[in-house]
Structure formats: C-alpha cells, structure tokens
From TrEMBL:
Domain of life (superkingdom): Bacteria
Active site: K167
Protein name: Putative oxidoreductase
InterPro entries: 6-PGluconate_DH-like_C_sf, 6PGD_dom2, 6PGDH_NADP-bd, HIBADH-like_NADP-bd, HIBADH-related, HIBADH-related_NP60_sf, NAD(P)-bd_dom_sf
Domain 6-phosphogluconate dehydrogenase NADP-binding: 3-156
Keywords: NAD, Oxidoreductase
Entry's Gene Ontology molecular function annotations: 2-hydroxy-3-oxopropionate reductase activity; NAD binding; NADP binding
Ranges of residues in domain 3-hydroxyisobutyrate dehydrogenase-like NAD-binding: 163-280
Upper taxonomic lineage: Bacteria, Pseudomonadati, Campylobacterota, Epsilonproteobacteria, Campylobacterales
EC number: 1.1.1.60
Amino acid sequence: MAIGFIGLGNLGAAIAKRLTSMGEEVIVWNRTKAKAEAKGFVCESSPKALLEKCDTVLMCLFDSDGVRNVLTMENGLLSANLKGKTIIDLSTNHFNDVIEFHAMVKKQGGNYLESPVLGSVVPASKGELTAVCAGKEGTFLTCKPLLEKFASTIFHLKEAGFAAKMKLINNLCLGSFMATIAECTALGEACGINKKELLEILGAGGGKSLVLAAKTQKLIDEDFSPHFSTSAITKDLHCLQDLAYSLNRPLYTASVTKELFSKMKMMGKGDEDFSSIYQLFKA
C-alpha cells in the first residue's frame, strides 16, 4: 500500500524522495497542489482523502500549529476513520502540544508515533538521519522498518513527549555549535587566515563536529540556500526556553544563541540556512 506524506518543505521533500527511491509509492497532500506536482508527487485533495488511501501517513511540518491544523481542519486527518491507521509525526513539536496529539489520535482509534529527526536535507537524501521516537512499543516496532529507509540510527524513548524534548535539547547543541563555528570563522578571517584553511584546521581541532562537516562548504561558498532555516532554529530554541521554564531551570548558552538567531531573523534572514549566522559575525 502507498505511504502518505504531508509537509514538502526542504526536509520533508528530501525524505519523501528518499522513500520513493527506496521503492515506496508515496502520495501526498499539500496546500498548494501545483507545488507537490512540480516535485513529482501525486497530490490528494485533503488529508482525509490521503489517509483513506494509506494505512500510514508521515507528517513533516514546521511547527505544532501546522500539525494541529492538519489534524483538525475540515477534512483533516482526525475526520477520517483512523482504525488501523498510523500517523508518524516527524515534526519538531512543542513538548506540550505533542502530548495532546498522542491523545487526539488515540481517541479516534489511531496510532501516533512521535518521531522528530536529527539531520537535514543531505543526510535525509542518503538515508542517514537519526530518528528519536516516543509512543507505544508496538507502534514503534511496526513503524521501524519504514523509518529505517531514511534513518540509519533510531532511538525509542517510549514515554510521550520525551522525543520532542530530546529534539529540542539536541538543537541547543546544533545552534550553539553553528554560532561558535561561524564566529570562529569570521574571527580567523579578520586575522588574515584563509577561510578554507581555517575551516580545515577547525575540523581537525576543537571545531570537529557533524555541524562543521555539514556546513564547511556553505561557509566557504557563502551559499545559504536553506537546508535547515534560521526561522526553524529560532522556533526550536524558543520552545527550549519554554521547556527550561517548565522545569524552573535557567538557560545560559541557549539564551545567547537564541538571541543571535532571532537577530538574524529580524534582519530578514529567516528563510536562509542557519549557517548564514556567519554574516552576523563577519559584518
């Protein structure tokens, strides 16, 4: 049976294309049908119509508001008969909202797997994402073979909400590393060090990381076409602040990092790749 997919942003489109390349029949729903068809997908008329043709639907949306809308809109997913159906949510959700999504789908007789992914467009296209899942073990085990088509590393934290929290914590590392690497790059250039050599040395030294490996060429070329946008990391770090507040804990490096990306967004750079924060330090 075909796999349903909702959310054809940069990451979502890469995952959907990866599934197609792995032999899965993928059909989609997208608000702009022409956009989906331009990317080579068959587009259904509504989320409900999509779910009626698929036992499993994956969502990869920008935020929890988008997920809630797809679930509850007219002819949304929750208006379909969910018995025997599974929704795999790859979105980075707010940790409170995702608890509601588990309950909403369960109430309608369906299965919901919270499964945010770590990684961006390039690892998605190679099947090298990391998936962090939360939900019933039976649902997880049923979904795992499908997840393995685009994720090489998969974790199951079981308790609802834990995957969302882990994704936010991971993105503190992601945003902090990117900001530090960008500042180091700009500082080194100000000293007169060749940028390519500088990044090579950082990659062999204290800057060695998945972030630097993924963003070195973007920094060299100053090509900030989006894989993971500034708007997305800003949103995630805001959610992380909510998480810390709920635990009555301060955030130090996260607060500074969030404000740096917020400044980039305010400057009109929200749709650029988050590595474009380099421009803030180079200015």
